[in-house]
Design a protein that fits this description.
The chain is mainly β. It folds into 9 domains: about 110 residues, Sandwich (Immunoglobulin-like), CATH 2.60.40; about 130 residues, Sandwich (Jelly Rolls); about 140 residues, Sandwich (Jelly Rolls); about 80 residues, Immunoglobulin-like, CATH 2.60.40; about 220 residues, Glycosyl hydrolase domain, family 43 (Tachylectin-2, Chain A, 5 Propeller); about 130 residues, Galactose-binding domain-like (Jelly Rolls, Sandwich); about 70 residues, Immunoglobulin-like (Sandwich), CATH 2.60.40; about 80 residues, Immunoglobulin-like; and more. About 5% of the residues lie in helices and about 45% in strands. A 5-stranded antiparallel sheet has the order 2-5-10-7-8, with no helix packed on it. The termini are far apart.
Length: about 1150
């Protein structure tokens, strides 16, 4: 029996996250203002207006900076003209703002002049210029129609209208079915659907139309397999060019839950503005005048919870009685150190509890949103959860949303080798564990009575740098689970946070090195590192703009370093002195050599014929042609940022008109106030050649809203045709409040050194408001089967990543500067732990004589790699430097400046002698100032010893070579690979028999045999043969079980295997005595014994015992000497011989030992054991 989709109606209330295989992508062929979408945006200022209606210009928060107001009486109308492909019911979304104090302000609306049958749509009262979309459905005729809105006729029901979105495809009345059983109703606004399927039996996908919907044609493409997508395409029969495609994923439970769970459990997010408000509790809009201040989810929050009569009440559905986790997103609007809220369930205010929230000092007073956990006891079915003021003085909180985890929270602890996991809390489900040594601990759990409530599954990690998990599945409620994920890292793992101060990051990999570009003090710097996790290493200034030479110097934004057609180029945006943001244009520099750390020269402006505002230009090569993609304005100063593409005839010149390929009109792109934004495009090309442009949406200062979307070029399509690009239906990467990272975006993409892993480099903030500096993060991503990038949630500053596969860097250890010996005024200063590796640094190194010294132990004489992690205390640009003294030698390093937190690694090679050495760091006499020192990093072996090492031999091994299973069984494989940082892939030779997941967990599917193979990036592999079901055991027999051969002799063994055709492997346990080739031919090499073993691919074995003898060696000591002659003589004297003596001494094969045999032994001895035939 197939398991049904667990969530349908709940989607409208809950925010759900990463897709089973990737973002849903529109596939639409109707005419539209948005490439690849049925949605047409029609501006109110372009509509026909009557009565008192006026076009209101220069409205900063309105789309295109204009809207229509004064819709104040029933004679005032706004009429749009719509083109419908055929008769049917259509969705229209009105973007409106209300300024009246009537609670239910609204519009009358009608179609095609039929005012007599006008309907009313009601709006929430959110204030002037606070825009919100409202859905209405209208019946239209084929061809041209009019849609009119007007005043309701009710007192004070005043509104403004910005635009409408017309969904130009008839709204279907249809159901998705699996083997005839309906599991979802089609919704024009929801393109992706997910079905929880039985892995052993995929159902048939179909679409059933209501009787009234026979004007649609239906085409269904079945999913190719589990965790893959099929499609359902509806086509208007009267307009064959008008089609709409829905994507349907058939997922196993793990992938299904990944769609509908926030890692740990089924999660639903409820906005506070949708709660029931009483007393002075009121919804507030976050668009305040012309300020971009939208840092909260949904752009609205609830305020006024400042007295006992004010409350916000949510309705929650619990699957069973139990204790549930709720996370509350709030800020503090008071100076209280521990503001709080009272909360109670099901109206029982007398049992209210109070939660106090520890908001970081200095981050109160609004717009800084934090998640705090509470636990509530709910009964099965519907419950209410109410929040109110806690009664404390100056204790006022504002609510943004709550996250309800719809599975009872297990009262459990996660354990490693039976010991509780350090730092474990019930409300956190992702943990990184660093393992010292070669043995992984056993993952487990502890707690009372858990097995009575949950089905519990523990998945051990397959090896180092792999993940394990513990799943608590609520009995009797499939899909309701709590999952704790534990990643086990080796000593080479690093943090996802790679640069603690920086924005708009860009990295380029070339000839074994990563080059990271940034600007400091108006100059361009390029860093160089062999380690992707150490990008901010050895910055070198490559260009300083000169205004006097006609080069722009103001507001240098988003430099990108590209290697194109054998030359280095830097693209960036800037403007000249005396200009402003309206004057931002694109510029290009060119390298002077093959080394990108050598100087660059100014080439000039790069522009298309319009020469309009341009930022964030990137270059992508498609089918051996170059294209520029950038963020620009349609007008000279309209502020809305769209993405444009143009053809380039050289790396420094655009030779075509620009084409808009993305306009910010999707809901996920319009979460902050106008001007709406598409910016920071970056190309990422899948292994199959699919071209994607990943870009940022919304304003970067809006912590909750800055996020990534993706444009995908249709296969074989023209990049200069806007319709060739398909936009993701939703954001593909966004803030993660659980890990405390916000405002993620502006990416660049690269791979691990061996090319087997894909990485995204992006910036983010540690908090939801713009007071937090941007920082640079790194993590892996993958591509789905359509070549579209898919991303996990951002890990945040505490997350870990393994060493990128193929990284070859000398091992080292870190010494904190505060642990060194200080002198001459050097001092330890504590600082922001977000920016300092140990929460402290050494300052005071500006003074002559001030220093910090370290005692280090070297294993041998040689040259060692030393890195200083340093920053200028203030922005002194080129005037700072540090000196390292060791063994009577000194080494100077310039420290570039950007401020207190602009730390970079500065490397140098220093000589050390075996044993103890003293390293002293002080101000360099070559510079006017010193710098702050956070820590140093010193290699644990010399550069000479590292270079002389034998290359690490790749290896892979599995804990099992064969498995016998029944359908439905699961077995966890363990692995051991060298090097540990290698990327791995798991494959099954027959997924219909057995499949394997990313954890190394084998699941038996159906009868038969399959080979599970582990492959590493370095080329090592190991396999396990899986047999599922009752089958004849594999066998192999040999035609001989014993074989005796003289030295130099040969003999052939013949194997008979079942199943027939099984591959055979031959081995000898003593190759010094006898070897065997791939065809079973045994060659005797020296006296002794050897076991010759034949093994089939199915795991069966057979053995032949081989004995090798040296003719004449009666003493069996492996050589011929006088003792063997004497032994032969004794046998001759007694006129009888044993079988063994005959074998060794009957040199002529006469059947006995006689004088001829004695003489043959003597001759052989005389020839020094060289035998005759």
């Amino acid at each position: 029996m197939h398991k049904k989709k667990l969530m349908a109606a709940a989607l409208s209330a809950a925010l759900v996250f990463s897709a089973c295989g990737g973002p849903a992508v529109s596939a639409v062929t109707t005419t539209s203002s948005v490439p690849g979408s049925v949605v047409q945006m029609l501006q109110a200022e372009d509509a026909a207006i009557t009565g008192q209606c006026q076009v209101m210009q220069n409205y900063f928060t309105a789309s295109r900076l204009a809207c229509v107001g004064k819709v104040d009486d029933t004679s005032s109308t706004v009429t749009f003209t719509l083109e419908a492909p055929e008769a049917g019911r259509y969705l229209i979304q009105l973007c409106t703002g209300s300024g009246s104090d009537q609670v239910n302000a609204g519009y009358r609306y009608w179609t095609n002049g039929d005012e007599e049958n006008a309907q009313i749509v009601r709006f929430h009262n959110y204030g002037w210029e606070t825009w919100r979309l409202y859905d209405v459905y209208v019946d239209l005729q084929a061809g041209e129609n009019t849609f009119t809105v007007s005043h309701t006729g009710e007192e004070k029901s005043y509104t403004q209208i910005d635009f409408i979105k017309f969904w130009s495809f008839p709204t279907p009345a249809a159901s998705l079915t699996a083997d005839g059983e309906a599991f979802a109703e089609l919704d024009i606004q929801q393109q992706a659907y997910y079905y929880l399927a039985d892995s052993a039996d995929l159902p048939e996908l179909a679409c059933e139309l209501a009787d009234s919907q026979r004007n649609f044609g239906v085409e269904v493409e079945q999913p190719a397999g589990l965790n893959q997508a099929g499609t359902v395409t509806l086509t208007c029969r009267n307009s064959p060019d008008c089609a709409y495609t829905y994507t349907v994923w058939f997922c196993d439970e793990e992938h299904y839950m990944a769609r509908f769970q926030d890692k740990g459990t089924t999660v639903m997010q409820y906005e506070a503005e949708d709660a029931v408000l009483t007393g002075s509790a009121v919804t507030r809009g976050s668009r305040e005048g012309s300020y971009l201040n939208a840092t909260c989810s949904g752009n609205e929050w609830v305020s006024g919870l400042d007295n006992a009569d004010a409350a916000a009440t949510f309705t929650l559905e619990a699957p069973a009685d139990g204790e549930y986790l709720v996370k509350v997103a709030l800020d503090s609007f008071s100076s209280a150190a521990d503001p709080g809220l009272r909360y109670w369930v099901n109206g029982e205010e007398s049992a209210a509890r109070t939660a106090k929230f520890d908001i970081p000092e200095g981050e109160q007073f609004g717009d800084n949103w934090f998640l705090f956990p509470i636990y509530v006891n709910l009964r099965e079915g519907e419950n209410t959860l109410t929040f109110s003021h806690d009664g404390g003085e100056s204790s006022t909180c504002e609510l943004d949303y709550i996250r309800f985890f719809a599975c009872p929270a297990p009262d459990a602890a996660i354990t490693l080798d039976g010991t509780p996991l350090s730092g474990f809390t019930r409300d956190k489900w992702d943990y990184d564990v660093s393992i010292a040594g070669d043995t992984l601990p056993a993952l487990g759990y502890s707690g009372q009575g858990l097995e009575e409530i949950y089905d519990i599954t523990v998945t051990q990690p397959a090896g180092f740098n792999q993940a394990g998990k513990v799943v608590f599945a609520l009995k009797g409620h499939p899909g309701y689970t709590f999952t704790y994920n534990v990643d086990f890292y080796d000593e080479n793992a690093s943090g996802s946070l790679v640069i603690n101060d920086g924005g708009d990051p860009w990295v380029t990999y070339h000839d074994g090195y990563y080059y990271y570009i940034n600007t400091q003090g108006g100059a361009f710097y390029v860093c160089k590192s062999a380690d992707l996790t150490d990008l901010n290493t050895n910055p070198v200034k490559v260009y300083t703009p000169d205004e006097a030479a006609g080069e722009p110097t103001r507001e240098i934004w988003a430099p990108e370093l590209h290697y194109i057609q054998g030359e280095w180029y830097i693209y960036y945006a800037a403007y000249h002195n005396g200009g402003n943001n309206n004057n931002h244009r694109g510029y290009v520099l060119k390298g002077t050599s093959q080394d990108p750390q050598d100087p660059f020269t100014f080439v000039g402006q790069i522009y298309d014929a319009t020469d309009k505002w341009m930022i964030d230009m990137t270059v992508v090569e498609i089918e051996e042609e170059l294209y520029a993609v950038w963020s620009g304005w349609e007008k000279n100063a309209d502020g809305e940022q769209a993405l444009y593409i143009a053809h380039m005839d050289s790396p420094t010149h655009i030779d075509s008109q620009r084409v808009m390929i993305s306009y910010p009109d999707e809901e996920f792109e319009r979460l902050s106030t106008n001007p709406y934004v598409n910016e920071g495009p970056a190309a990422v090309i899948a292994p199959d050649g699919t071209v994607n442009i990943v870009y940022s949406a919304n304003h970067f200062s809006n912590g909750a809203h800055y996020r990534l979307g993706v444009l995908t070029l249709k296969e074989g399509a023209d990049p200069m045709d806007a319709a060739s690009w398909m936009k993701s239906a939703d954001a593909v990467f966004q803030s993660n409040p659980e890990t405390g990272i916000y405002s993620v975006g502006h990416p660049s993409f690269t791979t691990s050194p061996d090319g087997t892993e894909n990485y995204i480099l992006f910036h983010g903030r540690d908090g939801s408001s713009s007071q937090y500096s941007r920082r640079v993060y790194l993590q892996t991503f993958t591509f789905d089967e359509k070549g579209v990038p898919t991303f996990e949630k951002p890990l945040g500053s505490t997350g870990k990543i393994k060493q990128p596969s193929g990284t070859d860097v000398i091992p080292s250890e870190i010494l904190e500067a505060e642990t060194g010996a200080l002198s001459g005024g050097a001092a330890v200063t504590t600082g922001d732990a977000r920016y300092l590796s140990g929460g402290a640094k050494v300052t005071g190194l500006n003074a002559d004589g001030a220093s910090v010294s370290f005692t280090v132990e070297a294993p041998s004489d040689g040259t060692y790699t030393l890195a200083l992690y340093a920053a200028q205390g203030t922005d002194r640009q080129t005037q700072s430097g540090l000196q390292v003294s060791v063994g009577g030698e000194t080494f100077d390093k310039q420290i570039i400046g950007r401020g207190n937190n602009a730390y970079f690694w500065y490397t140098l090679s220093v000589p050390l002698r075996a044993g103890q050495n003293t390293l002293t760091v002080s101000k360099s006499s070559a510079y006017a100032y010193g710098a702050d020192l956070d820590c140093i990093r010193l290699s644990t072996m010399s550069e000479e010893a590292y270079a002389a090492q034998e290359p690490v031999k790749p290896a892979a091994a599995l804990s099992e070579s064969t498995l016998a299973m029944e359908a439905g069984d699961t077995v966890q494989l363990q692995m051991e690979i060298t090097p540990r940082s290698d990327s791995i892939t798991w494959t099954s030779s027959d997924p219909a028999v057995a499949v394997i997941d990313a954890y190394g967990r084998v699941t038996a599917v159906g009868d038969g045999q399959a080979v599970i193979t582990l492959r590493t990036a370095s080329g090592a592999e190991a396999s396990c043969r899986v047999t599922v079901g009752v089958q004849a055991a594999p066998t192999v027999t040999l035609d001989k079980t014993a074989l005796t051969l003289p030295v130099g002799g040969t003999g052939r063994l013949t194997a008979a295997a079942a199943p027939a055709g099984d591959a055979l492997t031959w081995t000898s346990d003593n190759p010094a005595a006898a070897t065997v080739d791939a065809d079973g031919l045994v060659t005797a090499l020296a006296s002794g014994t050897a076991r010759i073993t034949v093994t089939t691919a199915s795991g069966a074995e057979a053995v032949c015992q081989v004995t090798v003898y040296l003719p004449g060696d009666l003493t069996k000591d492996g050589k011929l000497d006088i003792l063997d002659v004497m032994s032969a003589c004794r046998v001759l004297a007694r006129q009888s011989a044993t079988d063994e003596e005959l074998l060794l001494g009957d040199m002529d094969g006469s059947g006995g030992i006689d004088i001829k045999d004695v003489m043959s032994i003597c001759r052989a001895l005389a020839r020094q054991n060289q035998l005759v035939d």
